[in-house]
Amino acid sequence: MAYSKLRLAVVAVLGLATLHIFLSWHSKDLMQVLVQRVYVHNNWLNATNVSYPSLATNESKISLINISSGFKRFIPEKNNFWNHRQHQMFQLLDRLILNGTSSYSPSSNCIEAGMGPEVLEAYSFSESHGDFLRYMNCKDYSQRIDQPDKCDGDTFLLLVIKSVAANFERRQAIRETWGKESTVEGMKVRTVFLLGSASNVGDGPDLWRLLEFENRLYRDILQWEFKDTLFNLTLKDYLFLKWATVHCPHVRYVFKGDDDVFVNTPVMVTYLKSLSDDISSQLYVGQTIVNATPLRDKKSKYSIPKSFYDGAYPAYAGGGGFLYSGSLVRSLYKVSHYIPFFPIDDVFTGMCFMALKISLLHHSGFQTFDIEPKHRDNPCAHINLILVHQRSPRQTALLWRALRSPDLKC
């Protein structure tokens, strides 16, 4: 009898092991569902909602905004995941406006996006694609570091630099060169760095204490508790717009850029001072990228599955760095509630401006794909440029010093 029970137990264990191997090898869809459930339970990205300082209007309500007909026509009406969600929002807006409603109340809950079969393809691309799809509805995260007094009524230009906790050397190079807070060409310039979580859960050491010390020294960091990844740059932009709507309502211009660019700040300020009133109030300027379409190559970090989005991209400014009017901050914040988050932040920004019916202005001084290699170490090649991408912290320091040298002859 004991032998029979033992044999039965062995057979049962072998049967379960065989079933597990079969499911692991042959049931991709089931595994995707299992992975999804594990992420929902364990992934720290799903942060607790937080209350922000109230806006001029009720924080839970967003004023309705007219979406340009050009943007509505530009987005193909198809059943692909993002296209379908965007056209649902168009229809909702039309109904609200038709009914005479003045505001919209977006959900404040971090609700996981629906994972229908049509978008499960994205799980085979990368973890970042899966994370984005799961949490694209999540927009409220606790802010751990704030600078509520950064702007005042005299702030002419706010330099907003996207960074990550580990990039201290890049931030310091910017502080000591083109991002140093000062008066430039008679105009007040201020700087903030946008960061996600400093804990880097699963990706490296916890840098929170160092970041806290850095902020005590410089008071220029805005940091929220979300996973700082490529596809969360759209979320980072949204959180900045929400913050700036409250704390920088009167800033004249905003520069948004990466922490590996070089900016010729005096040239930028001179350009902004030269603008006429009609341009300065509706400004969106940078290196124009037109006729772009999604990359489908799974090896590219910018790849977008066709099941997620089908169509072209609107004209947008290269994300290395661009400028826009501070008076547009509130409108951009509002319209960002009516456009589903898109994984590529540059494209999402272009969509927001197109929805506001604001055209992108091309400026040859923005070189987000860099200049010719033979000129990259020549200060004279940079003297009239506004921005180049990329430069290391050492290159940034050397170039800034060279451009300020009285011995420079061009």
Automatic annotation (TrEMBL):
Biological processes per GO annotation: poly-N-acetyllactosamine biosynthetic process; protein O-linked glycosylation
Pathway linked to the protein: Protein modification; protein glycosylation
Protein name, per record: Hexosyltransferase
Residue stretches in coiled coil: none
This protein's GO CC annotations: Golgi membrane
Catalytic activity: a beta-D-galactosyl-(1->4)-N-acetyl-beta-D-glucosaminyl derivative + UDP-N-acetyl-alpha-D-glucosamine = an N-acetyl-beta-D-glucosaminyl-(1->3)-beta-D-galactosyl-(1->4)-N-acetyl-beta-D-glucosaminyl derivative + UDP + H(+)
Complex and partners: Interacts with B3GNT8; this interaction greatly increases B3GNT2 catalytic activity, independently of B3GNT8 enzymatic activity.
Topology with respect to the bilayer: Single-pass type II membrane protein
Short name of one Pfam family: Galactosyl_T
Family: Belongs to the glycosyltransferase 31 family.
Keyword Protease among UniProt keywords: no
Enzyme Commission designation: 2.4.1.-
Subcellular location: Golgi apparatus membrane
Molecular-function GO terms, alphabetical: N-acetyllactosaminide beta-1,3-N-acetylglucosaminyltransferase activity; protein N-acetylglucosaminyltransferase activity
Cofactor(s) annotated in UniProt: Mn(2+)
Keywords assigned: Glycoprotein, Glycosyltransferase, Golgi apparatus, Manganese, Membrane, Signal-anchor, Transferase, Transmembrane, Transmembrane helix
The organism of origin for this protein: Chiloscyllium punctatum
